Amino acid sequence: MTPDATSISTRAPARLLALILCLALAACARIQPKPAPEPEPAPPPVVVEVPVPAPPPPADEIGPLLSYHQSLRRMSQGELIKELSGLGLQKRSPRVAVQMGMVLMLTRGGGDLARAQALLDGVANANDSEASVYKPLAQMLSSNCAEARRLAEHIDRLATQQKDNQRRIDQLNDMLEGLKTIERTLPPRPAASAPTAVIK
Fold first, then answer.
1. Domain coordinates of the chain in residue numbers?
2. How far is CA 199 from the centre of its chain?
3. How far is CA 122 from the centre of its chain?
């Protein structure tokens, strides 16, 4: 063998080995470790909608007051005055004011209707939340008071006119009786003589 052939034969395996090493390194460079899988996001929490219970209906404040008004109508005047005194001792509130107005609408004292209307108007025109429940009833009762006052004033005017008319009638009757008395005291009139006939 020539020295060239010997060197070629010894270099060939070395080149082959170098080529294999290069390929192995290239393969290692391409083969990257598989990254760890990212954790899957947790599913969103399940929201269970709990139905909110409806608020309880407001307590019926008007029904008992209407029943109270019916019971007042069956009371005597003495019982109404006693009821009014008891209400006056209670702490003033829109409900108590409406109750006092109801009582005063049924008593027959002078100015009671005006007092009732003033109490009811106070509730009807109030701005606080406690009075808001009673406003419609107070407005209705106040209107009834105003109408009752108009009727009472009209009746009073008619009664006054009737008294005036009766007084005039009595005065005229007195004058007529006086004239009759004067007429009875006058002397009788002389009888008129018959005219004498003229004979020609």
1. 62-148
2. 108
3. 14
Tokens read off for 129: 């939340």
CA atoms within 13 A of residue 9's CA, in its CB half-sphere: 6
Count the helices and strands in the chain (H runs, E runs): 7, 0
Which helix H or strand E contains 67, and what residues bound it? helix 62-73
Q: What is the pTM of this model?
A: 0.56
Which tokens go with 147? Answer: 């109408």
Query: What sign has the CA pseudo-torsion 92, 93, 94, 99?
Result: negative
Q: How far apart are CA 148 and CA 107, in angstroms?
A: 13
* DSSP assignment letter at 90: S
Sequential pLDDT tens for the chain (200 residues):
455 545 555 566 667 777 777 776 666 655 555 666 677 777 777 766 766 665 554 567 888 999 999 999 999 999 999 999 999 999 999 999 999 999 999 998 889 999 999 999 999 999 988 899 999 999 999 999 999 999 988 998 999 999 999 999 999 998 988 888 888 887 777 666 655 555 55
